[in-house]
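Tip: read the tokens left to right.
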């Protein structure tokens, strides 16, 4: 793969902070099918009732109490540091375009020496909930710059610490996929699936799955996991659990079906760059959504 970091290091660092579980700038989005302006229900895990509902559903699908307690601790920590308008309690209604978090402000957590502690992002959150269902052979791309902040968080901040085996599994699962020479989204999807096969990524679980949104970086000629969350089957519907971004809240959203979820994900403005990027690819475990 061609190395272009020397030319665009600063630009890449800026992109890393703004793309993939980052801020939510306006982007260039393709037209999506009209779905009748359906309303969605969502929660930011602010109150005990919504936390209890989500915790019970996760544990019903095999997530341990220790894992769900950690999720709620992370949510409580984040929600306690929101300094703008407080997040609403309970499940709220929003349209299919999702929640606008642009005005949300949080206070950072700082050490005595001024070091700012890392925040949970979508990948750390999804892995927390799914790690007992995931196995890999530990292979990953050593030069994946899109995971540099994840690795730093895992290695330096106790709440995000993983065992050596878990860390290898995390990096293998979320490591970027080279797409050198492939010029269609279909070809990229095939390369993603092949990379998972090469890394022996297997995801178990009954009624619970990992959703990943692969974005395209033409500069590095790779696909990387720009967003991810956990999907749970709930009666006749679905519940999607995500950390919207490092500086944005945990969000649990209820959907009628997978198509509605897909359109919600593809509606995020921060998934789109310029015309050189091919469309996002959304996967459920190792299958296209």
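Filled-in amino acids:
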């Amino acid at each position: 793969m061609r190395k272009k970091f020397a030319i665009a290091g600063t630009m890449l660092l800026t992109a890393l902070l703004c793309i993939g579980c980052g801020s939510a700038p306006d982007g260039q989005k393709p037209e999506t099918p009209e779905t009748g302006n359906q309303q969605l229900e969502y929660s930011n895990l602010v109150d005990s009732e919504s936390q209890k509902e989500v915790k019970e559903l996760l544990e019903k699908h095999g997530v341990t109490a220790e894992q769900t307690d950690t999720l709620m601790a992370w949510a409580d920590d984040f929600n306690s540091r929101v300094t703008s308008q407080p997040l609403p309690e309970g499940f709220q209604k929003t349209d299919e375009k999702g929640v606008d978090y642009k005005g949300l402000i949080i206070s950072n957590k700082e050490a005595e020496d001024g070091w700012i502690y890392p925040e949970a992002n979508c990948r750390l959150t999804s892995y927390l909930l799914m790690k007992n269902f995931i196995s890999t052979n530990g292979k990953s791309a050593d030069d994946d710059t899109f995971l540099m902040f994840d690795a730093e968080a895992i290695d330096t901040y106790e709440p995000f610490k993983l065992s050596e085996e878990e860390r290898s599994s995390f990096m293998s699962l979320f490591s970027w996929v080279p797409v050198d020479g492939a010029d269609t989204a279909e070809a990229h999807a095939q390369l993603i699936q092949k990379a998972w096969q090469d890394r022996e990524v297997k995801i178990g679980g009954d009624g619970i799955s990992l959703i990943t949104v692969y974005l395209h970086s033409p500069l590095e000629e790779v696909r990387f996991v720009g967003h991810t969350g956990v999907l749970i089957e709930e009666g006749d519907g679905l519940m999607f659990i995500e950390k919207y971004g490092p500086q944005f809240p945990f969000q649990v959203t209820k959907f009628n079906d997978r198509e509605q979820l897909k359109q919600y994900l593809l509606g995020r403005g921060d998934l789109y760059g310029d015309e050189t990027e091919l469309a996002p690819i959304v996967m459920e475990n190792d299958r296209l959504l």
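The two ends are 28 Å apart (CA to CA). DSSP finds eight helices and eleven strands in the chain.
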